[in-house]
Fold these 4 entries.
Entry 1:
Amino acid sequence: MPPLFSAPAVILAGGYGTRLDSSRDQPKPLTEIGGEPLLWHVIRLLGSQGMAEFYIALGFGSAAIKRFFLENDSFRHDGPADLEADEITVFSTTPFESTIHLVETGMETNTGGRIKRLAPFLRDKKQFLMTYADSLANIELPNLHAFHEAHGKLATVTAVRPPERFGRLVIEGDTVVRFNEKKPADNEWINGGFFMLHPDVLEYIDGDSTAWEQEPVVRLTEEGQLKCYHHHGFWACLDTQKEKNQFEALWKSGSCPWKLW
């Protein structure tokens, strides 16, 4: 499939993922769903809709992530398989043509700092998509892209409804008299990732310690440069073993919502 638009994708894949038990031994992006790493699912989701260039921002467990791409027959690379290299580029022709840049962005670097470290690759782009390596959705990227193009601001965040993680207890004394699964309020939305960004947002990031979700997003909001794309479909983030099991069950169900390919 030819690219639907020329924007590259930045995937943040350097965090520790301390709430997921398996992440103690491996980086969370390599947590397997249906026998394939979570990162593979994110790339497949984006690539199946025409995205062809990816920058994976590495940190914790970077060698293991590099090893996955270098040892997987679905990808080829030029040059020696040097796990210590700051950047490795791999290529795929199946099921779609893509170029994947594996870039070291520091063990302790925060989310904004990881994006900033990719500035040399992004400054000359018209725009780029940024998302996380632990979230999946049945988002339609052409619609997100069209929305971003139409409003002309520097940034678009995809807003999603929060998952029903916690139950609400109705208590009398020390007795639970009713247990209700928590339903999000009608006006309750959260950051679902899948940002469309103009390269000028790089100037809003001070350095490695900057969390993208804090100072940069606050400044963009105050300056009227952040628009919101509402996604009403499926979205989920994998943080815990319970959520891993839920992802696995969806994949095996035969009607996996993020499997758009």
Entry 2:
Amino acid sequence: MATQKKLATSVAAAALLFGLAACGEGDAEGAEGEAATGQAAEEQSQGGGSSDAPSQQQMPEPDLGDVPDVVAEVNDADISGEEYSSAYETQFSQMAMQSQMSGEEVDEEALQEQTLNNLIGYELLTQEAEANGYEASEEDVDAELESVAESNGMESVDEFLSMAEEQDVSEDELRADVKQQVLINQVVDSLDVEEPSEEEIKQTYEDFADQQSSQGQGQDGEETETPDLEELRPQIEEQLTTQKENEAVQAHIEQLREDAEVEVHV
């Protein structure tokens, strides 16, 4: 039976999940970088940064002119302009904050294409989950909510729901999107993903150690000491597993798209 189901009633919720996932999938090195970026931003907001701090406080606005009512058709389902705009605004805000620190402007054309492709891929995975008869119980949704909240340092699901409400996403909308995510997770779990090899683990560790060595002394003037491989092994394995899973998902989406009827209107 044809489905008109979109990314729930508000893609803001899905975009919120995308943003949370991006925060939770980084390795220890990425987390340290984000912390340093946040600290630098705080120092500038307090007047301790460079003389151009006031200009950095003014966030750029996304260009969402001429967005059609329907940005893409995926088989028998539409992706609306409203859904696309909500997702794009969330992604743009994240990129704009990063660009303030790097000094590089946001490549809006590339970001718009990436956002649209993400939504098309999300819809294709959802359609496959429904075609395969996957189901998501309320218990599954509760567990996923708890997992997302915990992985992003939140003390409770209520805190996650409060953050969603601040972005004008109701609990019902969020639960609908999380249910959709649970279904997609089942598709992802069905994919054949290779485990990281010992060679890949060692190479990743060596690259990290080389980077640490090139950074030289820490803020206290002492040489930075790189933890040994066995201490970092769990993080490295998780990082590589996530990378391989993402590659498998992307390849699967590309295959689904080849077999699907996809018409883009932007």
Entry 3:
Amino acid sequence: MTLRCAKLLIAALVIACGALAGPAMAALAGMPAPTRIASGVYAFIGTGDAVAPENHGIVANNGFIVGKSGVTVIDTGPSYRYGRAMIEAIRKVTPLPVTLVIITHQAPEFVFGAAAFRDRNVPILAHVRAAQLIRDRCSICLANLRKTLGEDEMAGSRVTVPDRTIDGTTEIENGGRKLQLLHFGPASTPGDLAVLDTETGVLFAGSLVSNGRIPELRNEQIPGWLAALESVRALDLNTVVPAFGPPLRGDAILQTGLYLRELDASVKQACKRGMSLTQAMHAVQLPAFSGYKLYTTAQPQNVQRIYLQLEKQ
């Protein structure tokens, strides 16, 4: 074989490999750099906006914890492409392998990167109820994300059911790091987990806490959610990484609870006044939270959800 032929063959192989890799192998625009929260603890901070093509669905927070022998990932983002980008970003921080993924809850912005880790035989853990919801409902969420973000953005994404489950608060050790997986009962979802790194006091709160963004009510139990927030407040924490928005300290986590209380009370008052559902969706406003992201879309939807629940009582 001549040198020219060899070069042409190599070039053809490179092109072929790129074609086989497909769009899921391409770099991900808008991927946030990991933010160091504490020693060995990093978070990817999303935009906090609604999922849209311009943000590639990178709206939620997730992160990883580096131990002596391995890495624990907490939540995996909205797509296979995002999961791959996480893996590459983690490699730039540490050569240690990812040895466990923990899913805090089943919302689509947090789960569809899991396939990238499954393809590397990394165990994926969640609460048993979250795993059930991923199995039963996430195919619909995936279809919706494909419509919103497009087939190219979601290439390779698939429903990935966790292969390890727990049914209550559990302490584990992974990669030489002790972690508390906290379940406070049905709260923002039936299977919420919060992940506490005991060494640094950093808590990944999952959907229990949002910062500067209206929480979207889907599978919630508001009394349980409020009780869970009080339990989180009682912990000896250094930093809380919420589902959305910048990390929090101290009593700042209570803003989520304050919103839920005011929302619940305002909808109940609207019902007592005899407002129809449509009237309540327009009339129930919470000015203190009107500057939060998603207020104009999530607020009336949240009013609708609570109103319909009250009608069933």
Entry 4:
Amino acid sequence: MKIGVIMGGISSEREVSLQTGQEIVNHLDRSRYEVVPIVIDQRVDLITKVQQAGIDLAILALHGQFGEDGTVQGALETLGIPYTGSGVLASSLCMNKQLSKMLLNGAGVHTPVGFCWQGLQDYDPQAVERLGYPVIVKPNTGGSSIGIQLVHNEKELQAAVQEACSLDQTILIERYMKGTEITCSIVDGEVLPIIGIRSAHSEWFDYKAKYEAGGAEEQVIQLPPVIEQSVREAALASYRLLQCKVYARVDMILCQDIPYVLEVNTLPGMTATSLLPKSAAAQNISFSQLLDRIIASSLHERKQEWGKMHYV
């Protein structure tokens, strides 16, 4: 089987995507697959490079806009090329943090309280004062904690809002919740071991903590059975409600024993320090075995979806 690993892209997460892509390339079983790295540098690259590669399946190692937002998934469906992970709808929903929060809240899944601003014209420090400092300011789309800041007072607020607005027209202001950061990786509807996260040098799990060696302590966490059950239920409810398929990662914060969903990642990082491979390893699933499972499940999922729509 000829597999193309699509990486790079045009989002602010390009460098993380390149790391993810290279890690996947390194761990694909060469006795089973012919591997073709496909680096995307601009939007027009995708269709041309994919068609030239003549692949049987695309592994998506993209992050952020034009990668996780359903755009690439839709293009590959048009070309009739199966791809890994969630489909167009789930990719688009999970990329839009505000929309996914509304859906989750409507279904009774806890998320941090806050509000949404449509650019700098909505800037209202009094509203933030009423919400209560500290707050988290973040772009509505994107990931890897890029553009996200912890704000302690009005003096810090305007700079944080301006930075977030430079990355996205819509931004979120959420009350900062102090608690235990956890992440739930889900593969084929199965919740893998839950990982607890403690940043080594910062108050929260920021970009440096995520991607610098030694930036955070990440290990399987043992929770009381009742709390673990509520965490697993919240993760699966989020995964299913947002129509995720094959695999995803649900990030939460455990505050006063209640899990609050921060976001759902449809294309979680797969770098050497990423959380999904660590969670899989805790269940004795190697990186190569994880990729085999994602590939098999994705082929099955696309066959199910496309068969229903008479694509094949």
